[in-house]
Amino acid sequence: MIRRKKKGAYDQYIKSSKSSLFAETMQRIWENPGARVGIVLLAVIVLACLFAPLVAPYGVNDMDIQNMFAGPSAQHLCGTDGMGRDLFTRLLYGGRYSLALGLCAAIFGSVAGTIIGSVAGYFGGKTETLIMRIMDIWSSLPSILLCILISAVLGSGFFNTVLALSVGNVPIGVRLIRGQILAERSREYLEAAESIKCSKISIMFRHLLPNVVSPVIVDATMGIGMTITMAAALSYIGLGVQPPTPEWGAMLADARTHILNYPHLIMFPGLIIALTVLAINLIGDGLRDAMDPKLRK
Predict the structure, then answer these.
(1) pLDDT tens digits for 174-233?
(2) Nearest of 230, 206, 223 to residue 288 by alpha carbon
(3) Contact call for residues 232 and 249 (beta carbons, < 8 A)
(4) Chain-centroid distance, C-alpha 83
(5) Torsion of Cα atoms, 220 then 224 then 226 then 227, to 10°
(6) Residue 72 exposed, middle or buried by CB count within 10 Å (0-12, 13-18, 19+)
(7) Percent of the chain topping pLDDT 90
(8) Residue 80: what are its φ and ψ, rounded to 5°?
(9) What is the phi/psi pair of residue 23, to 5°?
(10) Which neighbouring-strand residues pair with 85?
(11) Pick from 110, 121, 193, 263: CA 20 to 30 A from residue 215's CA?
(12) Dist CA 127 CA 76 (whole Å)
């Protein structure tokens, strides 16, 4: 009975420590003026895209033949495209695809990099050497080139685009996690875990990884904005999400032949991409400062 009480008290202490640390991190992020602006801006964009059926004045593929290439007006806030479709409506629906692409690709790439980097950093030796040499070769290829090659081989589509975008994020995550694990590998709590016969998988993912994952979280957050930009670039050259799907990059691709005569077709998609990437980068900067132990009081 006494042991159970002590164990319950210890578990409660651990949970309260984790919750207080999370609350402190969230408070530090919100106190950062830049991060606060980024959170508000991104929240507005995300909520507008999620509730597009309620916000959008028209259907995503509704055509107004009499107002093709119409400029911004009270009837069409961002104008219309070459088929008379409302540009504001398509921006809202297109945000669902662009934001999902950026988020999924950043998560998949970071998870794969974390697992591979954990194996390389913890086991060391020949395993580490082999993995890092593969990462060196991997990193020597430009990310956008890898995305183009994979998209060209697999074809267009949402899942194929996510896979292509994820590949470039893997080496960064591997190097970050490996460096953090090398610094933590000689700590006393790992020796204690080994002395009580914990399995290597348990030590690596239960004890070691939670203490070194902060840089990867920050890098993944910052990488979402870059991934959204790369997704737009793939769609622009015809290898990403294809029309008539209203993805931001695909909308830019449709507008490139009309850039001189109807600049609003390319101005508004470009503006929403820039604002989204700016908001994510501001949040990433705030998250980096909030999770830096050197800045904690």
Answers:
(1) 888 888 888 887 777 777 777 787 777 777 777 777 777 778 888 888 888 888 888 888
(2) 223
(3) yes
(4) 32
(5) 110
(6) middle
(7) 11
(8) -130, 165
(9) -65, -40
(10) 63
(11) 193
(12) 59
Alpha helices per DSSP H over the chain: 2-31, 33-50, 52-55, 87-123, 125-140, 143-154, 158-167, 170-184, 188-195, 200-202, 214-236, 248-255, 264-290
pLDDT score at 177? 87
Place of tokens 């890092």: 132
Average pLDDT over residues 271-292: 86
User: Are 93 and 49 in contact, with CB atoms under 8 Å apart?
Assistant: yes
pTM: 0.80
Question: Once rounded to an integer, what is the mean pLDDT over residues 40-47?
Answer: 93
- Which range has the top average pLDDT, 21-35, 228-242, 269-283? 269-283
Cβ count within 10 A of residue 51: 11
Contact in structure between 174 and 206 (CB atoms under 8 Å): no
Question: Rounded mean pLDDT of the chain?
Answer: 81
**How is 197-208 classified by DSSP, letter by letter?**
T--HHHIIIIII
- What is the total residue count of the chain? 297
- Cα–Cα distance, 29 to 292 (Å, whole number): 11
| Token pair 């690709």 in the structure block, residue | 105
Q: What is the DSSP letter of 112?
A: H
